[in-house]
Amino acid sequence: MAKLFGTDGVRGKANVYPMTAEFAMKLGQVAGLGLAKKHKKVVIGKDTRISGDMIESALVSGFTSVGVDVVLLGVLPTPAVSYYAKSLEVDLAIIISASHNPYFDNGIKMKDGNGDKLSKEVTNLLEEKISEVVELNPEKIGLVIKNDEIYAEYVKSFEKFESLKGLKVVIDCANGAFSKIAPHVLKNLGAEVVVIGNEPNGVNINMGCGSTKTDLMCQTVVQSKADIGIALDGDGDRIVVADEKGNRVNCDQLIAFLATYFKAENKLSTPSIVTTELSNLGIAKYAKSLGLTYYATGVGEHCVVEKMVEIGANVGGEESGHIVLTDYSKSGDGLVVGISLCEALLKAKKKMSDVFPVFEMFPMTINNIRFSDKEKAAAAVESAEAKKLIAECQQKIGENGSLIVRKSGTEPLIRLYIQGEDKATVEEVTTKMVNFVEGQKND
């Protein structure tokens, strides 16, 4: 049987297994019996997609049927649900969201009572139990508790940031979980705010807006003569930023800028930056110039956070837009990061286009090569011939570059990430690798 839990929980098309009401109820029962043992209580938050109510109701039925109480937070960003889990004294924090995916998808993210992701061992155990019969006890039925105070508390938490007066900000809420919160918070901090993507109707989440569709945000920045554009995704843990000319800013550049700002303000908890192996290697060189240690982890926000916790770092993230500032949140929080960038921009007293790029990017190529199925894609890069070519190309790139070959976990794709200090070498290696992988389609 195919694995149900990916790196970010269970995800799929709503009303198609496993994202069905039946499955959600069973997952609630299994998770309730297996994981909700200390407090006998879980918390659930969701984004704005139309299937959220259905899945929430099913989860509630599952948990309460095995004697577990459920605290409902309603529509709230993923980072807020994770952050407040500990103070609510629950065993599990659950977020119903498919992040940046279209409205017809949904997902169930499960975190422990501290707001941390569940281990593979735990999710593997849940998968094993899904097919087993659950015995119910008529004397053990949980309660449903609605908590509207967390929303207000989350909004109030942003008062700790400095004034953004004098800054004009375009904020694209992706018609998602931040639609009400983000504009309100930015205005309270004194910014002049132009809002788009803040009218969710259940089916327009991430539709033509947000972090995956940034053209509208970029155009609005230019038209409104704003200083910065910020686009969030549906559940609010990802950010994409544009300068005053409507040009998107590379996320590695944003991380470097924040590290520079934190260092200047004596806010760096340790002299370090953490990103992933897919980040541009120019950031490693830049970190060294600042006297900072650079760490590159495996791909995935959880890998970045684990390393940050291990070394005590408070600035890190992925090039995909998940930026983590652990002083404020244990995971990516698009609004926290956006406000921090605005603070840093005001302190710099420069236009964004004069600040970025912060460092010189290494020449880099990214290619996604699609196959007819996952098995064929995997075989294309696992043969002896493929491994020999990869080793030769890695040697050609040299120790100051990188060649990463990744099999997509969700699609029949091979992703090639190649970078180095010399553009001609990068292009030569890219051509060899792409031609080889493309040639495997017909074998």
Describe the structure.
Strand 17 and strand 18 form a beta hairpin. The protein has a 6-stranded mixed sheet with strand order 1-5-4-2-3-6, sandwiched between helices. Strands 8-7-9-10-11 form a 5-stranded mixed sheet, sandwiched between helices. The longest helix is centred in the C-terminal third of the chain and has 17 residues, at 423-439. The protein is α/β, with parallel strands linked by helices and 443 residues long. The two termini are 28 Å apart. The protein contains 15 helices and 18 strands.
Give the proportion of residues in helices. Answer: 25-40%
Radius of gyration: 23 Å
CATH topology tier name of the largest domain: Alpha-D-Glucose-1,6-Bisphosphate, Chain A, domain 3
Which term fits the overall shape?
A: globular
Beta fraction of the residues? 15-25%
In CATH, what is the class of the largest domain?
A: Alpha Beta
CATH superfamily of the largest domain: Alpha-D-Glucose-1,6-Bisphosphate, subunit A, domain 3
The chain-level mean pLDDT equals 94
State the strand order across the main sheet. Answer: 1-5-4-2-3-6
Largest sheet: 6 strands, mixed
- CATH architectural type of the largest domain: 3-Layer(aba) Sandwich
Structural class: alpha/beta
Individual helix count? 15
Low-confidence segments: none
Helices and strands, with pairings:
Blueprint: E1 10-13, H1 21-35, E2 41-46, H2 52-65, E3 69-75, H3 78-84, E4 92-96, E5 105-112, H4 120-130, E6 144-146, H5 149-156, E7 168-172, H6 181-188, E8 192-196, H7 215-224, E9 228-232, E10 239-242, E11 248-249, H8 251-264, E12 272-276, H9 282-289, E13 293-297, H10 301-311, E14 316-317, E15 323-324, H11 334-348, H12 352-355, E16 364-370, H13 374-380, H14 384-397, E17 402-407, E18 413-419, H15 423-439
Parallel strand pairs: 2-3, 2-4, 3-6, 7-8, 7-9, 12-13
Antiparallel strand pairs: 1-5, 4-5, 9-10, 10-11, 14-15, 16-18, 17-18
Helix pairs in contact: 1-2, 14-15
